[in-house]
């Protein structure tokens, strides 16, 4: 007996209440469906249907077997879809949202290479620092930075999100170089307004874990809710800033900024942030979404990509 074929015949007979209608659905003879159900009943040693002139009615055993049959057949269909997708050429319109500064620096700049590699994918790039509800907004994929809240969305970590303290050479020449995190309490710092407590958390990479964390209260007259704005202010010598490595690479290389306290890891909150690809929960991830995520995950994983 072909068990999967017999289970499909049984499923449609149960749903349609008729061997003949199940046979029409499957494109086979009525006798074939009847024989499949009979073989199942013999194998299970239980009657699956009560038969009458009005049609087929599931027995108690039939109802139990029907529920299990649905799960098995659905799992088989999912397995076939996932496997077939591996051989499918990624195509279609991909709507992806991303933070403005990060998107310009690290998504858009590599988009020509992505489009060349996947000529059947079109991209709508939604550049915004607003956290969109991706399902309601018809978004296929979102690039998010930080610590993810609990949600039903799926996520894949693309890269770490590291921040470093930096300042312009002009600012350092005027105020001196801080030798410890505590020294920053007397410096002018540039902060995000979201950090309402005005504190940075420092972790000494050379110390033992139980004695490595230090919190420093900060001061300064300027806050900005935009990474590029804080970068410009830091380059202009307005103060020391805590900026992501993905934003300051060029400025450090060309001497516009210098890194301060390089032996310390720094973050504004206790949560460990990262750069994420977030997408709606689906049993089968579309090939266009998987292609985009794999492309940028491979790019960001290169050893020197985030090098200062």
Automatic annotation (TrEMBL):
InterPro entries (alphabetical): LysR-type_TF_proteobact-type, LysR_HTH_N, LysR_subst-bd, WH-like_DNA-bd_sf, WH_DNA-bd_sf
Keyword Transcription tagged: yes
Domain of life: Bacteria
Listed transmembrane segments: none
GO MF assignments: DNA binding; DNA-binding transcription factor activity
Keywords (A to Z) from UniProt: DNA-binding, Transcription, Transcription regulation
Pfam families: HTH_1 (PF00126), LysR_substrate (PF03466)
Ranges for domain HTH lysR-type: 1-59
Family label: Belongs to the LysR transcriptional regulatory family.
PANTHER family attached to this UniProt entry: HTH-TYPE TRANSCRIPTIONAL ACTIVATOR TTDR-RELATED (PTHR30537:SF5), HTH-TYPE TRANSCRIPTIONAL REGULATOR (PTHR30537)
Name of protein: DNA-binding transcriptional LysR family regulator
């Amino acid at each position: 007996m072909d068990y999967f074929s017999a289970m499909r015949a049984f499923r449609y007979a149960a749903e349609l209440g008729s061997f003949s209608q199940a046979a029409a659905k499957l494109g086979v003879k009525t006798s074939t469906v009847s024989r499949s159900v009979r073989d199942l009943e013999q194998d299970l040693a239980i009657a699956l249907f009560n038969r009458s002139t009005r049609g087929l009615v599931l027995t108690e055993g039939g109802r139990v077997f029907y529920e299990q049959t649905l799960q098995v057949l659905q799992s088989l269909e999912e397995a076939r879809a996932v496997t077939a997708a591996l051989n499918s050429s990624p195509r279609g319109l991909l709507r992806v949202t991303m933070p403005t500064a990060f998107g310009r620096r690290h998504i858009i700049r590599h988009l020509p290479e992505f489009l060349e590699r996947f000529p059947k994918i079109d991209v709508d790039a939604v550049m915004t620092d607003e956290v969109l509800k991706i399902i309601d907004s018809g978004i296929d994929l979102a690039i998010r930075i930080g610590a993810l809240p609990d949600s039903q969305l799926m996520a894949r970590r693309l890269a770490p999100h590291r921040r470093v303290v930096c300042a312009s050479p002009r600012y350092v020449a005027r105020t001196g170089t801080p030798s410890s995190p505590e020294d920053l309490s007397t410096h002018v710092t540039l902060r995000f307004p979201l950090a309402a407590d005005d504190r940075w958390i420092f972790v000494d990479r050379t110390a033992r874990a139980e004695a490595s964390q230090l919190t420093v209260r900060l001061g300064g007259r300027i806050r900005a809710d935009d990474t590029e704005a804080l970068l410009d202010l830091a380059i202009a010598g307005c103060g020391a800033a805590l900026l992501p490595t993905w934003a300051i690479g060029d400025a450090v290389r060309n001497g516009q900024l210098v890194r301060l306290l390089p032996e310390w890891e720094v973050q504004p909150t206790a949560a460990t942030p990262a750069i994420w690809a977030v997408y709606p929960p689906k049993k089968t991830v579309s090939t266009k979404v998987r292609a985009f995520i794999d492309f940028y995950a491979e790019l960001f994983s290169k050893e020197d990509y985030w090098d200062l």
